[in-house]
Amino acid sequence: MKKILIAAAVAAACAAAPAAAQMYLGGGVGASRTDTDETSYKLYGGYQFNPNWGAELAYNDLGRYRNANIESWTLAGVGTLPLTAQWSLLGKLGLASNRSRFAGTTNYEALLVGVGVGYSFTKQVGLRLEYEDFGKLSNQGGGNSRGSNLSLSLRYAF
C-alpha cells in the first residue's frame, strides 16, 4: 500500500509540473549606462519551469559605446520570489555576450547579474522593472568599459 501511495504522489507531482510551466515573451525600453547615458531596447523569451525558477534568452540594444553601437545577447537563470498574487521579486544570473561595432573589437563574454520586480495584471500579461549589469563591454581597456541597464518591459506568457 505504501508503494502505491508513493507512486501516486510521484505521478501527481510529475503531472502537476507541466501545468505550472509556461513560456513567455517580452519587450521593453530603458536607460542604459555605458560611457554615456543611452536609450536601450530589449526583447526576451523564456521558460518558467515552476513559480520560482526559469531560464531566459534576451537581445539587448544598449545604445552607443565609444561612438559605436553596442548590443548584448544574454542567457540567464531567473529566480522568482512571489510576494502576492500580483507582485514578485526576481533575480538573474547568467552570461552576457557583448558586441561593440567598432574596429579592433570582438565579442566579449561577461557575467550577467540582474534584479527586478514584476507585476502581473493577469496570468498572461505583466510588467517588469529590471536592473541588469552586463559586465565589461569590450576587450579594449580605458574609461568606463562596463554596461548596465534599467528597463521597463511588458511580458506575455502562453
Task: Tell me what the structure shows.
- By secondary structure, the protein is mainly beta.
- It has a single domain, classed as Porin (Beta Barrel), CATH 2.40.160.20.
- Helices cover 12% and strands 65% of the residues.
- It has one helix at residues 2-20; strands at 22-33, 37-48, 53-65, 68-82, 87-100, 108-120, 125-136, 146-157.
- The radius of gyration is 19 Å and the shape is elongated.
- It starts with a helix and ends with a strand.
**CATH hierarchy, class:** Mainly Beta
Give me the number of helical elements. 1
Measured on Cα atoms, how large is the radius of gyration? Answer: 19 Å
User: What would the average pLDDT be, to the nearest integer?
Assistant: 85
How are helices and strands ordered from N to C? HEEEEEEEE
Corresponding CATH architecture: Beta Barrel
Strand order of the largest sheet: 1-2-3-4-5-6-7-8
User: What is the number of E strands?
Assistant: 8
Overall tally of domains: 1
Range of helix content: 10-25%
Derived from helix and strand composition plus strand pairing, the structural class reads mainly beta
Instruction: Please tell me what the overall shape is.
Output: elongated
- Please report which band the strand proportion falls in: under 5%, 5-15%, 15-25%, 25-35%, 35-45% or over 45%: over 45%
CATH topology: Porin
* Main sheet properties: 8 strands, antiparallel, barrel
Q: End-to-end span in angstroms?
A: 39 Å
User: What low-confidence regions span 5 or more consecutive residues with pLDDT below 50?
Assistant: 1-17
